[in-house]
Specification:
Bound molecules: guanosine-5'-diphosphate
Mean pLDDT: 81
Helix content: 25-40%
Distance between the termini: 62 Å
Number of strands: 17
CATH superfamily of the largest domain: P-loop containing nucleotide triphosphate hydrolases
Number of domains: 3
CATH topology of the largest domain: Rossmann fold
Low-confidence stretches: 168-172, 200-213, 450-463
Number of helices: 16
Largest sheet: 7 strands, mixed
CATH class of the largest domain: Alpha Beta
Structural class: alpha/beta
Strand order of the largest sheet: 2-3-4-1-5-6-7
Strand content: 15-25%
Shape: globular
């Protein structure tokens, strides 16, 4: 197979070699004999997610000292660009745009190859955005702040980069549920991953230890044609493996909460793993808060259940305590498992399926307004001191993942938290949404706007 090529270009000292090293990990072979590549250039193998590519630093081809970009040697870069699927122009965020950057950008714009703009040496995220924004003037589109030295920002750049690589990745065509496995160190994330994948583990996707925060594992769960169950695909995002690799550096108790946050962001459903022996800690609460904030579905997995002495009440007591402490995700289902013995582990994916389904669910405007009508009849909206009452005109689901319902009302501030919670509870009681957060948007609407609004959502009924 011929691998696609990514050309790195830029004036001297902007950090091209540093970025090339960052993209291709130190152990990657330098390639000289890949079919279809020119022998006299140095290509390094690299990968991002499940895409492999070759990266070539064109710096050495054109600049042997700090002189300007010479026309003659451009021929060399031309040849490199001709075989590249995408070019990355590296610039220096600390110096800001230089005439040579503009010159290369102008030249690149005349070529058909897509160009991404990496603004290097942006170690500080806040500063980085400002530093990068100066480079809009190069006319190459969005500048990506990165740090070749620290690795920050390279993920965003690479996410974009792989979209330009040719060849269809058959794996991404298959619908998959993205499941992040998060929790404190030693709660049993890796053990659970093993229990979940087991014999079905099909593909371990490529990872580059330098740029990735999590390991993705693709798992196919076979269907059962006799029962009409289709096979399903899951992408399990595990944050434990990387920590283990780095534990030498960080110490075994290192808890990379930012890695967990990133995994949550990439997921559809989060498995929040709790250690039954330790119960819910502050770190678990932080993770729960983030799951709700990001609007992800969740399943609470209470692991090491084998190690608990139980009587017939134990499970209910645990359930109550955990739910109280994890109030951010009180809508999530809870399952008590043992990754060690495998007890109930296979049920986890059933709960994931259910949560993913609810996360994507859409409810018609008429059903939403029926629920509202009922709710308001039982318990009318509060009245302010001037005697003016809150009015809900109608509601409609505006989006899913998570389900988000806009409520059009006379004045949002007339609806206090108590009443808002009451309405949310009604939606949950009537419509389910188990396993997913639900968002309610309280939108003020003047009554003269309302006729239009009602025409646009013609199934809406006034509440
Ligand atoms: P090249 O000539 O474009 O290949 O640049 P190098 O990779 O050799 O880097 C040039 C200089 O910039 C070196 O001193 C690097 O240490 C420094 N450098 C590279 N990347 C970064 C970065 O992300 N941040 C900072 N602060 N310095 C960097
Ligand atoms: P991670 O750091 O979250 O990935 O946790 P590990 O999967 O590495 O597990 C940490 C420790 O807990 C290991 O010693 C496991 O053997 C143990 N462990 C994991 N799951 C269970 C379980 O279900 N029951 C018991 N008793 N121990 C478990």
């Amino acid at each position: 197979m011929v691998l696609p090529i990514v050309a790195i270009i830029g004036r001297p000292n902007v950090g091209k070699s540093t970025i090339v090293n960052r993209l291709s990990s130190a152990t990657d072979a330098i390639v000289h004999d890949e079919p279809g590549v020119t022998r006299d250039r140095t290509y390094r193998q690299a990968f991002w997610q499940d895409r492999d590519y070759l990266v070539v630093d064109t710096g050495g081809l054109i600049f042997n000292d700090d002189t300007e970009f010479l026309p003659l040697i451009r021929e060399q870069v031309m040849a490199a660009l001709a075989e590249a699927s995408v070019a990355v122009l590296v610039v220096d965020g600390q110096t800001g745009p230089m005439p040579a950057d503009q010159e290369i950008a102008d030249w690149l714009r005349q070529h058909p190859v897509p160009v991404l703009l990496a603004v290097n040496k942006c170690e500080s995220p806040q500063q980085g955005i400002i530093q990068a924004s100066q480079f809009w003037e190069l006319g190459l589109g969005e500048p990506f702040p990165v740090s070749g030295i620290h690795g920050s920002g390279t993920g965003e750049l690479l996410d974009q980069l792989i979209t330009y690589l040719p060849g269809v990745d058959t794996l991404t065509d298959v619908p998959e549920t993205r499941v992040a496995i998060v929790g404190r160190p030693n709660v049993g994330k890796s053990s659970l991953l093993n229990a979940l994948t087991g014999e079905n583990r099909s593909i371990v996707s490529s990872i580059s230890g330098t740029t990735r925060d999590a390991i993705d594992m693709l798992v196919e769960r076979p269907g059962d044609p006799e029962k009409g169950i289709e096979s399903k695909n899951y992408r399990l995002i595990d944050t434990a493996g990387i920590r283990k690799k780095k534990s030498v550096e960080y110490g075994p108790e290192f808890f990379g909460i930012n890695r967990a946050f990133k995994a949550i962001r990439r997921s559809d459903v989060v498995l929040l793993v709790i250690d039954a022996l330790d119960g819910v800690t502050e770190q678990d609460q932080k993770l729960a808060g983030r799951i709700a904030e990001e609007g992800r579905a969740a399943v609470i997995v209470v692991n090491k259940w084998d190690a608990i002495e139980k009587d017939s009440n134990t499970i209910y007591e645990y359930q109550k305590t955990i739910q109280d402490r994890l109030y951010f995700v009180e809508w999530a289902q809870m399952i008590f498992v043992s990754a060690l013995t495998g007890q109930r582990a296979e049920k986890i994916l059933d709960l994931v399926d259910a949560a993913a389904f609810e996360h994507q669910r859409r409810v018609t405007t008429s059903v939403i307004n029926e629920v509202l009508q009922e709710a308001v009849s039982w318990h009318s909206p509060p009245t302010n001191r001037q005697g003016r009452q809150g009015k809900i005109y109608y509601g409609t689901q505006v989006t899913s993942q998570p389900p988000t319902i806009a409520l059009f009302v006379n004045e949002p501030k007339r609806f206090n938290d108590n009443y808002r919670r009451y309405i949310e509870r009604q939606f949950r009681q009537q419509l389910g949404f188990t396993g997913t957060p639900v968002r309610l948007l309280w939108r003020g609407k003047k009554s003269r706007d309302l006729d239009d609004a009602q025409i646009n959502t013609n199934r809406a009924t006034r509440v």
